[in-house]
């Protein structure tokens, strides 16, 4: 190696991409670098040094971590990279990859732990898996919907003819139930094959559209404080208006339905680096973490009268516009849907 000046290794370790932590047999933190401190969102009044490292372990991983730590400290073996979750000082869950190796301390054995933040990578993986799942479910559903819609349409036609010939009270019910089934099938076809709708791309003022949607819900929002924060309202977005309006309708409807008693809904809009960001945040019931991956699956609903088609439509619309969707939710606190759409 060529050196032109003395290298400050400590500075390198402090700022290296991985969090580095050394713990003793009580799992007390004896050393940490700046990256670990930042990753775990520690502060001067909430330090990392001398803390019990197991405070940061996600409950799902307590047992396995105990085993791995004993493997390092007692058996002096390396604990290879493993994907886990940690909980930061502010309560955020972060996806990490952790490797531990024995470290020979002066007095007692110590464990040197490397922590790599893989939150972004995991998010991208999850999104991709979700897209794959959706497109295969979508294709399957569209196939069935198509096959079932045609005979049902024929039956509906014959019921109408029958109604002209005779007047039986059941016929009304048959017709209206058939109509419901056809609406569901059409919804399904719409979300699984939105490109078939052939809607032209136009310039859209999304803020005006958001206001129009809010207006539609005014009767249902007496108990809700609606807070709008629109910026760059003059920048128009190129897209398929009906599809996008329907998506934001679905998201706002869900936000309203998530609030049982009193609550707030924040609707934010801004344009940054050619991307329109729309955030819809509610202070509603929230979504349990294990259910997040179900969102967008056709017919997945936790509501008595839900259709489970709203978010399927939203995801299809966002994909169609080459945008991105990010969902953050805390049970009992609320949910944010962040939609990012390229404006051109
Ligand atoms: N803002 C939200 N807050 C809490 N849960 C939500 C929210 N949006 C969606 N969900 C959950 O996702 C499910 C699917 O939503 P959606 O596809 O719109 O169908 P539906 O509203 O008909 O149930 C809902 O049943 C609900 O459990
Ligand atoms: Mg809905």
Termini separation: 49 Å
Structural class determined from secondary elements: alpha+beta
CATH class of the largest domain: Alpha Beta
What kind of sheet is the major sheet?
5 strands, antiparallel
Q: Kindly state the number of beta strands.
A: 12
Verbal overview:
It catalyses: ATP + protein L-histidine = ADP + protein N-phospho-L-histidine. One of its GO terms (molecular function) is ATP binding. It holds the Pfam family HATPase_c. One of its GO terms (biological process) is regulation of DNA-templated transcription. It is an enzyme of class 2 (transferase). A hairpin with a 3-residue loop joins strand 11 and strand 12. The relative contact order is 0.08. By secondary structure, the protein is α+β, with helices and mostly antiparallel strands. The model has no long low-confidence stretch (mean pLDDT 90). It folds into three domains: 109 residues, 2-Layer Sandwich (Beta-Lactamase); 74 residues, Signal transduction histidine kinase, dimerisation/phosphotransfer (DHp) domain (Helix Hairpins, Orthogonal Bundle), CATH 1.10.287.130; 147 residues, Heat Shock Protein 90 (2-Layer Sandwich), CATH 3.30.565. It starts with 8 loop residues before the first helix and ends with a strand. It contains eight helices and twelve strands. The radius of gyration is 27 Å and the shape is elongated. Helix 6 packs across helix 7 and helix 7 packs antiparallel against helix 8. The structure holds adenosine-5'-diphosphate (ADP) and magnesium ion. The site of adenosine-5'-diphosphate has 22 residues, from helix 7 and helix 8.
């Amino acid at each position: 190696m060529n050196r032109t000046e003395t290298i400050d290794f400590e500075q390198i370790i402090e700022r290296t991409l991985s969090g580095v932590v050394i713990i003793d047999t009580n799992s007390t933190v004896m050393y940490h670098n700046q990256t670990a401190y930042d990753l775990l969102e520690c502060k001067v009044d909430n330090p990392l040094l001398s803390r019990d490292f197991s405070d940061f372990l996600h409950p799902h991983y307590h047992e396995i971590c105990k085993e791995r730590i004993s493997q390092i400290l007692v058996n002096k073996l390396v604990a290879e990279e493993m994907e886990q979750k940690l909980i930061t000082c502010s309560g955020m869950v972060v996806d990490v990859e952790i490797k531990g190796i024995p470290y020979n301390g002066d007095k007692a054995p110590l464990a040197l732990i490397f922590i790599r933040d893989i939150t972004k990578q995991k998010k991208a993986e999850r999104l991709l898996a979700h897209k794959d799942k959706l497109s295969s479910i979508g294709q399957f559903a569209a196939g069935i919907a198509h096959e079932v819609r045609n005979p049902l349409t024929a039956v509906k036609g014959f019921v109408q003819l029958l109604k002209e010939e005779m007047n039986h009270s059941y016929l009304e019910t048959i017709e209206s139930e058939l109509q419901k089934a056809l609406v569901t099938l059409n919804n399904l076809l719409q979300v699984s094959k939105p490109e078939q709708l052939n809607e032209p791309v136009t310039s859209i003022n999304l803020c005006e559209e958001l206001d129009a949607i809010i207006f539609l819900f005014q009767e249902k929002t007496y108990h809700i404080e609606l807070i709008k924060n629109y910026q760059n309202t003059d920048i128009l977005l190129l897209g398929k208006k009906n599809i996008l309006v329907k998506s934001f309708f679905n998201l706002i409807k869900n936000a309203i339905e998530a609030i049982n008693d009193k609550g707030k809904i924040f609707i934010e809009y801004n344009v940054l680096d050619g991307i329109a960001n729309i955030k819809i945040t509610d202070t509603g019931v929230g979504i349990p973490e294990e259910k997040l991956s179900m969102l967008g699956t056709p017919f997945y609903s936790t509501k008595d009268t839900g259709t489970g088609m709203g978010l399927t439509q939203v995801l299809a619309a966002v994909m169609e516009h080459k945008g991105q969707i990010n969902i953050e939710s805390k049970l009992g606190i609320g949910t944010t849907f962040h939609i990012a759409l390229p404006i051109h």
